[in-house]
Amino acid sequence: MKKPGKGPSTAGSGARALRTRVKKKSGLKESSRRWLERHLNDPYVHRSKAEGWRSRAAFKLIEIDDKHKLLKPGHRVVDLGAAPGGWLQVAAKRINSPDEAPTVVGIDYLEIDTIPGATILQKDFLDDDAPDMLIEALGGAPDVVLSDMAAPTTGHRRTDHIRTMHLCEVAAHFAVSVLKPGGHFLAKTFQGGTENVLLDMLKRNFRTVQHVKPPASRDESVELYLLAKDFRGRDVSAPDDADDAA
Ligand SMILES: C[S@@+](CC[C@H](N)C(=O)[O-])C[C@H]1O[C@@H](n2cnc3c(N)ncnc32)[C@H](O)[C@@H]1O
Question: How far apart are CA 20 and CA 226, in angstroms?
Answer without folding.
Answer: 34
